[in-house]
Amino acid sequence: MVVAQSKEKRCHDDEKAALLQFKHSFPSTNKCKNDWPDVHQKPKLESWKEGGDCCSWEGVECDDRTDHVIGLDLSGSCLFGSINSSSNALFTLTHLQRLDLSYNDFNYSHIPSAVGNLSRLTHLDLSSSYLTGQIPQQQLSNITTLVSLDLSYNYRRDDDSYHGLEVHSLEGLVQRMINLKELHLSDVRISSSRVPQLLSNFSSLESLLLLNCELRGEFPVAIFHLPKLKVLDLRDNHDLRGYLPDFPSGSPLKSLLLTSTSFGGVVPPSFGNLASLEDIDISYCNFTREISSWLMNLTQLIDIDLSHNRLTGQIPSNFSHLIHRLDLLSNNLEGTIPTHFSNLHNLRYLSLRYNRFVGSVELNLFSHLKKLTILFLSYNHLSLSVKNISTKNITPFPSLEFLGLVSCNLSEFPTILHNNINTLEHLDLSHNNLRESVTPLSILILRSNRFHGVIKDGFGFSNLRVVNLFNNSFSGKIPSKFIETMIHMRALNASRKMGYMEQLLLPNLFQPFEDFGPFDYSMTMINKGLERNYMKIPDTLFGIDFSSNNFEGQIPDAFGDLAGLQMLNLSRNNLSGHIPSSFSNMKNLESLDLSRNQLSGHIPMDPTKLTSLSSFDMSYNNLSGPIPQGNQFCTFDPTSFEGNLGLFVEPWNEQCGNVRSLPQQQQPPSPIEEEEDDDSESDLKIEWMIILIGFVSGLVVGVILGNELIARKRHWFVKTLARMGIW
């Protein structure tokens, strides 16, 4: 028996030297960026050492027979720096067949023309690597062995400057690459703007991604009939025209993405022959036809976006149980909502907004879909019933984050919202007929969000005792009727235990928390100048914080009727006019902050009435006249009055021995300085670990999610939120 001894693999010295030269051309190979949060990054070049065998280095592949380097997988390798003349040693590796440099930062350098030396390449991936400039079209076109070419997602716009790859002619680039299976040029600016007819001859083509390439003209319809085509992405080419042809049975197409193009016309019945189709996005096009004639046959569908077209008809009576997302927003669909939606257990997103659906529908139809995250039924002709939602042995809507029920003829508040839905982030019940009393609600906290708009007069709860709108973008006048409805704050010694519907637990609308119960919530707040930690909101606390918004106009006199109010903070707004003299009636007031507004006139408070006042700030307004003297006004820091050029102390009526003069007048802090101020500057400082919120018809607000998602790869949720106007 002859035992063959395996040959020890050794890389060629010249190739090892070229790899080391490539490594040393980068000033850093171990500092990974966070630009691609979904990509696993690793500094692979750190394993490249002088004394080692390059065939054993991470990311390096050598041929088993010849020991030549035939593959480099440096995707997400934390490379930063230019990839041009100093790194051209890489392009002397003429035996390379696969080169992947994606997800690195090449600092807006150009693709070296020397890439044409790699004549044996079958796979080239330079995507998402911050490359810019003209693609070396002539040199790349000589690599006729290419099976996969990916130059996508190098686009970036900074200060109205374009950074990205460009190519003069798509036809000139690929005309000799007849073996291509994958052509990915998304975000590459194609100057010729036409999709060449010759692509319809690429019989091996499986994936064609041309998202946002500034394409124009007529799309060659024959490309749809390529025998192996599985993925076609033409999104965001707004002037690219086309139509859907007849499709034969057996088409391998799995993903068809045409959103925001000028495609349109009638969807052919043969579209139902695309039995392998999993992902369809033809939103923001101009397609017509009844959807039931073709949609019901597509049993493998997972992701459906048909929004913003002119589709008609009724929703098919059956859908693929695999479906994750169904978006039919803004069409001409009609009929009733099918009851079989309750069987779509994989459904995560459902939007039926802006159609002509009719009839009665029970919210219970969707309540037990465990994966449902987004549900929009708004702006139809539905009569929504929120009764008969069973909560026995199961939590309704266990994953729901967004719920839109605008104009659904609701006559009562959804009972499911009386429960602890700890995932809900966005709720819109506007334009309904809500009549159910929710007046027992006593705590309304919308602190540190991005709510905006005007608070309408019809919004109010008589039992409110804590209202915190701090750090939002509410605008307009503070409605007097809203303040007048706070009857519970008018009593001097008001206190009451919480009961049913006094709190609506939507904690994730604001910030994460752990281990909550219906009444176990804690906070840190400033009371009488001292920071105190409470394990729960005290039953005797009465406070209003409207600070750090864009409220304008005069302060309503109605505040003076809230004799039980202990804390009032209206600072950092655009309020003007005089301070109401009725403020002297707030005998329980302990903390008052009206700073950084545009208030004018004199300070009307009567020190003999406001005996509980211990924290006071009127700084940076346009106030004038004498500062009130006597009682606790003698204890206030002079900085409480700074920034008001017209204020003065009457020396002949001075009752406070420790008050000598106002501080030197200063300008208000700059916006930058104010942004750097800690939230704790608010006199009504409440850091909520459990957030309580109540909604009622008439409060129209917008919610904007603050997390900016920058990953370049397509993700349906990102796109969905963008279309919702959430950010």
TrEMBL record:
Organism of this sequence: Cuscuta campestris
Taxonomy, superkingdom: Eukaryota
Subcellular location: Cell membrane
Start and end residues of each Leucine-rich repeat-containing N-terminal plant-type domain: 12-63
Name of the protein in question: Leucine-rich repeat-containing N-terminal plant-type domain-containing protein
Organism taxonomic ancestry: Eukaryota, Viridiplantae, Streptophyta, Embryophyta, Tracheophyta
Region: Disordered, residue numbers: 659-679
Pfam families: LRR_1 (PF00560), LRR_8 (PF13855), LRRNT_2 (PF08263)
Membrane topology field: Single-pass type I membrane protein
InterPro entries referenced in this protein's UniProt entry, alphabetically: Leu-rich_rpt (IPR001611), Leu-rich_rpt_typical-subtyp (IPR003591), LRR_dom_sf (IPR032675), LRR_N_plant-typ (IPR013210), RLP23-like (IPR046956)
SUPFAM superfamilies: L domain-like
Biological processes annotated in GO: defense response; response to other organism
GO cellular component labels: plasma membrane
Keywords (A to Z) from UniProt: Cell membrane, Glycoprotein, Leucine-rich repeat, Membrane, Repeat, Signal, Transmembrane, Transmembrane helix
